[in-house]
Here is the input.
Amino acid sequence: MVLAVRSYELSVGYEIDEGLVWVVDRLNLEIGAGESYCLVGESGCGKSTIGNAVAGLLPPYAVTDGVLELMGVKAIEGRLRRFNGLRGRVVVRIPQDPAASLNPFLTVGEQLGEVLRAHLGQLTESEARKRVGYLLSLVKLPPEVAEAYPHQLSGGMKQRVAIALALAPSPKVVVADEPTSALDAYLKFSIARLLKALQLALGLTLIFITHDITLARHVCDRVAVIYAGRVVEEARTEDLLEGALHPYTKLLLRAVPRRLASERLADIPGTPPPPGRYPSGCRFRPRCPVASEECTRDPEPAEVGEMHRVYCWRWRSA
Amino acid sequence: MSPLLAVEDLYVAFRAPRGGLTLGYRVVWALRGVSLSVEEGESLGVVGGSGSGKSTLLKAVVGLVKPLRGSIVYRGLDLLKLGWSQRRRVLREVGYVPQEPSQSMDPRMSVREIVLEPLLALGVPKESREHLLGSVLELVDLPNEVRERNIRELSGGMQQRVAIARALITKPRLLLLDEPTSSLDVSTAAQILNLLRDLRDTLGLSYVVVSHDIDSVSYVADRVAVMALGVVVEVGSTHSVLAEPLHPYTRVLVEPERVEEEVTLDPEVACPAYRWCPWRGDRCATERPRPVEVRRGHLVMCWNYS
Amino acid sequence: MTTVTEALRDLLRLIRRAWRRPAFRVAFSLALALTVLGLLGPYVAPYPLQGLGVEVVSERSLLPPSLEHPLGTDAMGRDILSRVLFGLWRATVVTLLVISVSSALGLFVGSAAAILPKPAETVLVYTMELFISVPSVLLAAALVAATGGGLVPLTVALIATWWPWYGRVAYTQARALRELDFVNLPRLFGLSRLYIVRKHIVPHVVSPVLVEALSDLGSVVIEMSTITFIFGASQSISEPDLGVMVGLGLRYITTHPWVVLSPALFLALLAISFTVFGEVLYEEANPVLRKRWFRWF
Here is the structure.
């Protein structure tokens, strides 16, 4: 299997006024080409940072360690980040807020044309129009949208345009960072489904970042649950949703209100630790209902099933 | 028994800038004839997408926006016909928790100042104030030591608890909550939802909870009303509406996985769902559907059911 | 008043940040030294009566600097050092007074304008715009002509033309606030608009206004001296004023340069140190680029 994204002990930190703060800790990812992979976690867990790292969009004051390979090419090696030639052609990112990524002064067609020309060189008017039409049809938008300005479009349409913009350079890996949080509930599903359909049709590798664990079921083959900068559980979507083993995953699944189910929602006491103040050993230890002495050591991955990995000492007991 | 709160045929409009690069304003109708009621001890959930008018409904009740038409009757008194000070006095029984705790509380104030602010104009003596502060913090499960902390230092979940505490300090009968969990993480939202349920059980409060997430709302509400573009399209018991949604828009909210096409709501026609509704008829574009009681207590505004 | 203490605390933090820059350290120290000197001036001047302009010693006019008169004497035989010290006192007192009164006035008017009902708001905003469009020099000329000169019309003219600038700063900041719920909710609790201005708007607006005010210190010094320089003749020439002294001493620049150089030097030092102090403070309060900006290239 060709690995589209591979990371080995990848860590990411930020240099801020107080010094260097590590946000992502020794991430080991293996995502195959054409796979759809979800990163699920609450705010501040570092999932966006992982997405930015893969897409080559970390700010200059970010510090890295470890290795990241995209399609076999080393993009991050220690402190060095080499993404020239990779951004666009290999990896793109669909941002959270579509309105922020669209230029209000250009029509949709002009913006798509800009990206196309940046990656394909000179294009004639008719060629550009044809390609723009193709991109719009991919995201199920009528060709007339090319003449529209972003403010004339609804939220859902803007997000589709943002997706079209991301797909313009024909990338191989798409990082979608919470592409649905700014949208209404039903739009979440239609956008998520669109991404899934595009992934299958174009053979893309999709990395879908979200805090909504139930959305993962509709989009992803595999899911990784992130807590405080570390992966705590990783499995095939069905296996995770039906048979989660990490205490955090289990509690998270029971904290989501489910219709017509009146049992009390799981209460995870406390709050996730902020970067820089992570506890030693297992980072979930202070809030974990089944924590014990051994949890003061960093958990090692336990292979508990096919493609199912848990980073917990106590997974058997919970 | 007459309801605690009854909103009748409410109309609210705004002037909004045209948006994008165009100058000038346009008129936006936030509420176009909304009628809802809440009984004593009941909790009503109001669900809808952005632009449905659900937040505006709450703001109209507390007086942050002025309706153009209609009535808001609380315990038999039409609030819109009262003078300002009389209205303030009546609304002491209504607690309001606005959206976005970071915007509804002054970031320079301490928890104590924020929670006690509603009491300032009421002439409550100092000792009583401290006592009330203590009891209301206990109700929302906040430790006593947060009293002096600046609100900025607290996490999102704790900030939301402070906002709820502030709404509870005047001992209201009715609590209005605007998107209480939207800005929160899954685990924090769960804590707040549990808290709301507990408060309802122990204090016997009546609620109106507004949200775009029908699942969170169903956890705390007995009855649910669905709104779209300033009108109510369906209302009934939570169980009934969620188990068998009648209006096409309600189906979109309850079963979003099943929605194939893009849902576009049109404010120009009588029924907002007209443009994409699979059962649309000519009448739906010209005449506003009248409420039909399909099941006991379960009403839907759709010509299909007449 | 906790608003004042909090504003001062924020200011102190800002100064500490600005202290990193050597230009600021020099400017701040110099400005502080000159202000202290100015405030103490009348008490340490060796010839206070001459400084005040009351005493005139014609026989000792235009003497170059000596042990008795470290900066020499002017055309009327008055000790220049004393004159300069009194002039410095005037400059610092007027500047500080103008800045503090106009910033306080602008702060309140601007904050109130943002929250009052539309008609009141429009009136206040237009008033501010009206006053902004009046050049201080002309207004000062008019007031001086009407009242015959002196410290009071000068100060009033300066306050009248400076306050609307702060009013505008306060107004724009306050307007951004009025969309926020915490500004509108207290009305629901039955609290007055005055309460909201005092408790919720002013504290948020004080910092930007204060920084603007401090960055304007240098400009006020210059403006004040410009006015007195130009209108020096119409004011009583016995009054100690740095601008007036420069104006009167100009004619002796080739023959007895010390007469004009001393007041000019002090004026320049005052203006420059105040200006640099204010500018650096303003830059620290409104950073344009983040730390390590050069890494972006």
Residues 292-297 of chain C have pLDDT under 50 and may be disordered. Residues 129 and 164 of chain C are 7 Å apart (CA to CA). The first helix of chain C runs from residue 2 to 18. Chain C touches chain A at residues 290-292, 295-296 (CB under 8 Å).
